[in-house]
Structure formats: C-alpha cells, structure tokens
C-alpha cells in the first residue's frame, strides 16, 4: 500500500490520568497491519480544536507555519477491529502531544497508511517455543494489547506472561481490559495459552503488584518465581517495549541470563524503543 495520508475521525476518548489517555479513530477501509506494528499519526493544529482560556478554538500559536506534525504510535486494537485504538502519553511541552491531549470526539487526525515495525510475532521462526514474555513500561503496553487480541497468539504459545510497569497505580491503565481480553480469547480457542498478568508499580505500594524495576526482578529471579517459569533460551520468546532505558537495562539483564537477541528469526529477544 502506498504511504498515503488519510483523514481519520476520533470516535471515542478515555482519560486515564492527566498525562495518559486512549482514543479510537475510524479505520480507512484499505488499511491493514500486523499486531505489534505502529503508524504515524498526525495533527494539523488548524484542524484540531483546543481549549484556550476555557474556550474551544483553533490553536496555531506554536505552529505558525501551520504544518502537520506526525509521530509514531503503536496500534492497540487488533488487526481485525473496525476501529483503530491508540494509547498516548501527554508531554506538556511536546510538539505533538501538547496538541493531541485536547482532542475530542469528532475531531480529525491524519494517518499515514504504511504500517511499520518488527515487534511482531511473525519475526520469529517456527517451530515456536512454548513461552511468550511481553514486558512493557508505560504506553509501551500498546503493541502487546494488539497481539493479545489476535487468536493466533493464544494458539501458538503454551504460556503468555504480560509484565507491565508504571510509576503509580493510576498510570497502570487497561487492567480491566486485559482481564476482559483474557476471558474473551481463552474462551474462543481450544487449549489456549495460560496467561499470567504481572502488574508492576514502582513508586507506590499496591496490593498484588510487584514494586521493583524489571531488570532487577529478572536478575534476582523474582519475576520468574512469581510466574512459576524459568527463562530458558530453548523455550522463550521475550519482547520489550517502552522506555529506552528499561529496554537497554532489561536487554542486558536477559543476555546475562543466557538469552540472545532475535536476528533473522533466531534468538529470544525483540525490542522497541519509544524515544
Ligand atoms: C515505534 C514507536 C512507537 C510509539 N508508540 C507510541 C504510543 O503508542 N503511544 C505514545 O504515547 N507514544 C508512542 N511513541 C512516542 C511518540 O512517537 C511521541 O514521542 C510522543 O507522542 C510524544 O510526542 P511529543 O511531540 O509530544 O514529544 P516528543 O518531542 O516526541 O518527546 C519528548 C520527550 O517525551 C518523552 N516521551 C516521548 N514519548 C513518550 C512516551 N510514549 N511515554 C513516555 N515518555 C515519552 C521522551 O523523554 C521524549 O524525549 C512511539 C514512538 C516510537 C518510536
Ligand atoms: N508519568 C507522569 O506523570 C509524567 C507526566 C508528564 C511527563 N512525563 C514524562 O514522560 C516520561 C516518562 O513517562 P512514563 O510515565 O511512561 O514513565 P517512565 O519513566 O517510562 O516509567 C514507566 C515505568 O518504567 C519504569 N522504568 C523507568 N526506567 C526504567 C529502567 N531503566 N528499567 C526498568 N524500568 C524502568 C519506571 O520505573 P521508576 O518509577 O523506577 O522510574 C516505571 O515503572 C518522562 O519523559 C516524563 O518526564 C511523565
């Protein structure tokens, strides 16, 4: 498909915290993607209405030339959904999200229709090992939600572990949706993978959540014990997404445990950095 820019309409918005929100948009008919991929979303400040002095109005003050601004966004929804869903941070002085945070149902965004990215399960050669570990910080959860809404994922592995780290409980978004996805997908597949969700909250104490950063949890074996599985190089695929420091530190921790980067289909670890 050529990389056309198509207008998409905002259909819903969910605000998790003042700096985290999700939204759905219309899906252009011919737009196809693989679970785990990302697209470039655009705003044109002359089209996105914002609140200024409590009144909704066009804001082009930070963008006097009125150019479209594009940023990479992982797709949360499944490749089979009719709408496209995204999960976004708000960086108060970020060129893109300082605009995007004001979007409302009915607003128009721009979508570049070429999907990108290799954080997909298709990158792994068959035969597949039995365990799939998905490790995310913050909005890096997005591609894993898409994978978990693909029946194939539940068919292909015996065990799926999703560990999701946020600073506070309120920033641990999508917890109920994860529960719902698990119920829906395990009822649709014969012999579905056993799923373990591991919430991690690092800056406050929350019942049921681990509190340390991912590299430490892996290096001292806490995560493996919590889940009841070893990180065996023969039986493990492991994907990391989100904060680049987490990706780097976790990658090093995993290598020291004997796992290898996935290249040309072989090896355990696949990663995506968000900045
Ligand atoms: C492959 C890929 C996929 C991405 N998918 C998503 C996504 O699904 N959701 C999303 O919110 N962002 C995602 N991003 C980041 C996104 O492209 C923008 O960086 C983000 O929207 C902020 O844009 P900005 O112009 O406001 O700030 P920028 O100028 O782009 O960023 C300013 C600073 O904000 C911080 N930052 C940027 N993005 C994030 C983030 N997601 N979480 C925490 N801190 C951040 C970093 O410190 C960065 O240096 C992705 C990036 C890449 C490369
Ligand atoms: N969260 C907010 O309220 C907020 C608001 C405005 C702007 N921002 C900006 O957004 C960016 C951060 O976004 P975010 O909320 O998604 O936070 P983040 O810093 O990516 O934190 C998300 C999770 O990742 C963990 N983490 C960070 N570095 C790690 C590492 N090296 N190894 C393992 N885990 C690691 C954090 O643990 P720790 O808690 O131990 O760091 C936290 O549990 C920053 O640029 C920040 O300035 C955040």
Question: What would you say this structure looks like, in words?
Answer:
The protein has 7 helices and 13 strands. The chain is an alpha/beta fold and 275 residues long. It has 2 domains: 5-116, Elongation Factor Tu (Ef-tu), domain 3 (Beta Barrel); 121-273, Rossmann fold (3-Layer(aba) Sandwich), CATH 3.40.50.80. The strands form 3 sheets. The protein has a 6-stranded antiparallel β-sheet with strand order 6-3-8-1-2-7. The chain has a 5-stranded parallel β-sheet with strand order 11-10-9-12-13, with helices on both faces. Strands 4-5 form a two-stranded antiparallel sheet. The mean pLDDT is 92. The structure holds flavin-adenine dinucleotide and NADP nicotinamide-adenine-dinucleotide phosphate. Residues 38, 71-74, 86-89, 91, 94-98, 117, 138-139, 142, 272, 274-275 line the site of flavin-adenine dinucleotide.
Walk me through the topology.
Blueprint: E1 5-17, E2 20-26, E3 38-43, E4 49-52, E5 55-58, E6 69-74, E7 83-89, H1 97-100, E8 108-116, E9 131-137, H2 142-148, H3 151-156, E10 159-166, H4 175-188, E11 194-201, H5 214-219, H6 222-227, E12 236-242, H7 244-256, E13 269-273
Parallel strand pairs: 9-10, 9-12, 10-11, 12-13
Antiparallel strand pairs: 1-2, 1-8, 2-7, 3-6, 3-8, 4-5
The protein binds flavin-adenine dinucleotide and NADP nicotinamide-adenine-dinucleotide phosphate.
The site of NADP nicotinamide-adenine-dinucleotide phosphate has 19 residues, from β10, α5 and α7.
